[in-house]
Amino acid sequence: MIRRPSHARERGIPEATVARLPLYLRALNGMSERGLATVSSEDLASAAGVNSAKLRKDLSHLGSYGTRGVGYDVEYLIYQISRELGLTQDWAVAIVGVGNLGRALANYGGFVSRGFRVAALFDADPEVVGDHIAGLNVEHIDDLEAVIRRRGVSIVVLATPAAAAQQVADRVIAAGVTSILNFAPVVLTVPEGVDIRKVDLSIELQILAFHEQRKTDRMSGGPAMAEEWPEAVDL
Amino acid sequence: MIRRPSHARERGIPEATVARLPLYLRALNGMSERGLATVSSEDLASAAGVNSAKLRKDLSHLGSYGTRGVGYDVEYLIYQISRELGLTQDWAVAIVGVGNLGRALANYGGFVSRGFRVAALFDADPEVVGDHIAGLNVEHIDDLEAVIRRRGVSIVVLATPAAAAQQVADRVIAAGVTSILNFAPVVLTVPEGVDIRKVDLSIELQILAFHEQRKTDRMSGGPAMAEEWPEAVDL
DNA sequence: GTCCCTTTGTGAAGCGATGCACAAAGTGAA
DNA sequence: TTCACTTTGTGCATCGCTTCACAAAGGGAC
């Protein structure tokens, strides 16, 4: 059996590094398309929007894949990062909830590009069950467990209304799924060993609003409009 | 002029805390609807999916709004967090790019709920300009600057193809916008003082795939399928 | 082979966030 | 008033990530 270089920490890549690897991969793919053979940490870092020291440390966690004085071989690095991220196999993804957002996700091309294949769509509304979206038949949520098992789905995207999300999560987890991407604005409770990632548009906007408010406050010279909590309310 | 309590760090809330405030706010709104008057840090923390020490430290950055032995007044805390996040005013948001995703965002209800109002939709495709989506007329991208200024848009959501995103960002920034939520899979370069937040479905999936691969590797007892880099490729 | 130049990989310091553990502060009962 | 109990606010140790700065390693010219 062939092992990876011993100085690469066997199974210990920092979470922050993992979150940046897809960024590097995308930048490298662009360079590959433009025909670049090698790239320096400086150039790759700036294409990915990080500084070069961070990039080098990140890559050093995968192994020693660069050449001093030269840089990194673009194709080789693409292969190594892809392998580390698990993109050399392909993953069957199911989308639950085919409302506006679910439809948009199903049709989103960037999805399929790298290792991911939308393998099933589910909804509870009899009105949309049976529709064809992005070449797929929308299945009824009653068949969730059976279809997940049959098609080997390992990642589920939740695009249901908030009220349904926890219940659906429980069911897909019971069916063996351990990776969930949640678009519903609720905090999901899941057993240990299940990975959840959350995307919440409303939260992102609120964070932007906080900084935006700060910027405008600063312009107008302080919190002149601060108001007291209305006296009428009982404290 | 009324000031906030002096022990609250005047303009110094940690970024990690800001990112969690919307979570607390959502949990509090649920409690308010269920008629709860007060809540302990323990209960609120568990509703928001964090531990109670973190919650208390986060809230302490806003001021001392709890009562020892009792907990926090739900309505009062909602008010304080809303004010800190800048949700007591409402923000005009523009969505650029009315493809699948842009449409879904325009129709997304959770948007409007708290302080945000979709004030304009833009697209470059003459085919969709003039369409009515979620009660709004889709405007041509040529009118971007004029409409942004006229309607006081301060936050822009980018849902354009990747190739157009940087160019659109440059234009909205030139028009005075300093907060952007970017759904396009590109690294945007922006001047200092402009806040960008990024949402990238593909990256989220890749992170999940990494962990999923790890879990299955562990089950099958090691990286038995690891392959050498094909010899044919020049290194 | 030797020298110079470039670029990687990493030790170490710095920085911010997390979580523990407890003193301080409040409630309610007697 | 005093006492027992609850819950906040925070000092402090710890942890993980970032950044600096440089030794080590490789390439190319001569």
Characterization of the model:
2 copies of one chain form a homodimer. Chain A has 235 residues and is of the alpha/beta class. Chain A folds into 2 domains: 15-85, Arc Repressor Mutant, subunit A; 91-201, 3-Layer(aba) Sandwich (Rossmann fold). Chain A contains 9 helices and 10 strands. Chain A has helices at residues 15-33, 41-48, 52-60, 74-85, 100-107, 109-113, 144-151, 162-174, 201-219; strands spanning 38-39, 66-67, 71-73, 91-96, 116-123, 132-133, 136-140, 155-158, 179-182, 195-198. In chain A, the strands form 2 sheets. In chain A, strands 6-7-5-4-8-9-10 form a 7-stranded mixed β-sheet. In chain A, strands 1-3-2 form a 3-stranded antiparallel β-sheet. In chain A, helix 1 (15-33) crosses helix 2 (41-48) and helix 2 (41-48) packs across helix 3. The longest helix of chain A has 19 residues, at 15-33. The first copy, chain A, is globular. The model of chain A is unreliable at 1-10, 222-228 and 230-235 (pLDDT under 50). At the A-B interface, helix 1, helix 4, helix 5, helix 6 and strand 9 of A face helix 1, helix 4, helix 5, helix 6 and strand 9 of B. Chain A binds a DNA duplex (30 and 30 nucleotides) through helix 1, helix 3 and strand 2. Chains A, B: One of its GO terms (cellular component) is cytoplasm. Chains A, B: NAD(+) binds at residues 97-102. Chains A, B: Belongs to the transcriptional regulatory Rex family.
Helix and strand topology:
Two copies of one chain form a homodimer.
Chain A: H1 15-33, E1 38-39, H2 41-48, H3 52-60, E2 66-67, E3 71-73, H4 74-85, E4 91-96, H5 100-107, H6 109-113, E5 116-123, E6 132-133, E7 136-140, H7 144-151, E8 155-158, H8 162-174, E9 179-182, E10 195-198, H9 201-219
Helix pairs in contact in A: 1-2, 1-4, 2-3
Chain A binds a DNA duplex (30 and 30 nucleotides) through helix 1, helix 3 and strand 2.
